[in-house]
Amino acid sequence: ITANAVCEKDGFVYIGTDEGLYIISPDGDIVSNELTEFLSDTSITDIIADNKGNLWIATYRRYGVVRYSKSRRIVTVNRSKGLISNLVNCLCELSSGKIAVGTEEGISIIEYSGDVESSIGYDNGLESPNISVIYEDTDGTLYAGSDGGGLYSVKDSDISVYTEDDGLNSNVITAI
Predict the structure, then answer these.
(1) Which of 18, 27, 61, 68 is the most buried (most CB within 10 A)?
(2) What does the DSSP assignment read for 77-139?
């Protein structure tokens, strides 16, 4: 089994794989619960813990984004709820507490409530919208690495792109 994502929260280690979610307790035991059951046979690409104590889980195809709250409530945010794509690659908690979601079709911003605030895709200027990594700078600029289109910089409604023509070694950006 290959681990796609690992996140530690409250001493528990959450491991996302193509086969689902594994949770390891602080004692080293494998934990089964409603979340591991819900995500059984689901490809998980990223996991983050937000500053409110919730887990956000990126799934590929099946659910889009899953929020697992401290009260053990499972909420899904997917295409039918406004997410730009269910093919989710990465997650990033923004300084505002919102979650930036990188997908194969662009970026969506999710409010804590689970509502999709906005999305940026091909029609908004992302010529290569397959986003593999997202990072927020201290000034609020969102940087999004793409799979073949270089590095996007998004500030308010302005989008810039940096590519090999601008000095990058590759137009495939996997980490920031």
Answers:
(1) 68
(2) E-GGGT-S-SBEEEEEE-TTS-EEEEETTEEEEE-TTS-EEEEE-GGGT-SS--EEEEEE-TT
